[in-house]
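Forwarding the complex inputs:
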Amino acid sequence: MSRTAAALIIGNEILSGKIADTNTTFLARGLFELGIELRRVVVCPDEIDTISRELNELRSTHDLVFTSGGVGPTHDDVTIEGVAASFGRPVVQSEAVAKMIRHYYGDRVNDAHLRMANMPEGAEMIRSSEAPWPTVVIDNVFVLPGVPEIFELKFTDLRKRLDQGQEFHSQAVFTRSGEGEIAGLLERIAKAFPGVMVGSYVKWKAEDYRTKVTFDGNDADAVAKAADMLVDELAPDLFVRRE
Amino acid sequence: MSRTAAALIIGNEILSGKIADTNTTFLARGLFELGIELRRVVVCPDEIDTISRELNELRSTHDLVFTSGGVGPTHDDVTIEGVAASFGRPVVQSEAVAKMIRHYYGDRVNDAHLRMANMPEGAEMIRSSEAPWPTVVIDNVFVLPGVPEIFELKFTDLRKRLDQGQEFHSQAVFTRSGEGEIAGLLERIAKAFPGVMVGSYVKWKAEDYRTKVTFDGNDADAVAKAADMLVDELAPDLFVRRE
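Prediction (whole assembly, two chains):
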């Protein structure tokens, strides 16, 4: 069975539309490549109680949970407090990280900067090769920052730790057919290959195809055979290409 | 008090990273402009039970719920079934929409196309000026399609219905200061103006500023005064501009 994952995206700026969240898509692609099934994403505001409540549910029902956002120096960065509350642990300062922060900011260092050294008691700090500060990990929860550049750096570093050699195989067939015209065929393919996820995506803007059909699964052979079945049963003039 | 809203984004393609969801940001901005507080977004797979369970929770705890995705003609489009299950209602075919679909597809019409005429029994069908099919509305739940162009068309049409003359006022101050250096000041401003949401966003790529501070609220005067307080207390050489 695949490992399952959930994401908790934290930030008023996402819910007010000020910032478009791109971390979900980056995480989703990365987990997919690792053969980990992202089952649920929740976006919530910067509130300690809300974060704690959401996290309680996500971490008890998924193998891995990734949080994004709310770990900076300002008053609305309360993710660490929320995570700590979820685990019933106090927030403590990491001496090692505080030292790094003092070194980085020098004379300008203040209490706000040092908030970034806070972590739930007993959390692990994973050093990253490129990101400025370590990543807080507690049990099955990985606490990542909202800034996309740093989120991506940190997740990329975590991939080695998460990789268990599982992977998904993918094929795509592009067709000039509308989605409705092949819906019955796709349903038969999905039933014939229960381990293969069959998806279809309509292009509304002009392209050389109208519907892209995707086949994904752990079994490369089943994925290829499912794609074969579509190509074989599709009228030849509707087939565009296969990738 | 502001009305509250939640969104349920439905689709395996979002969770596998095949498609980047843009509907959340579009919806978030639109609701913000209407003075409606988007409190929670959940992304879930195309599964009837999961959709029904998520929707039960979201619709009982928010004034308005918007779903995105899973309303096309294929076997994995099960949102209508999920919504119907949440309300304990059977799925029925809308005669009016079936007629529109038959007219549109002519001789090519099939059962898959006609699935798009399905709705939970007793749902309202809102005709839209530009979108091809009506929008299904049941109680406080608005069922929107995942294709961004159509999602945006339909939500734009719904705005008139949702507009109650409330609105949020926004101001932004751009500064050369780092976020940590003004964290204490921002906290004092947030405490002095409890009805104003204060947000801060760091730019990591080169710009003429380092931190953008935003002020949002229902009271235009309080928003302006909160922004004044930042400008007044900021060192003049750190101020870039105000919008």
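The domain at 4-162 of chain B is CATH 3.40.980.10 (Molybdenum Cofactor Biosythetic Enzyme; Chain A).
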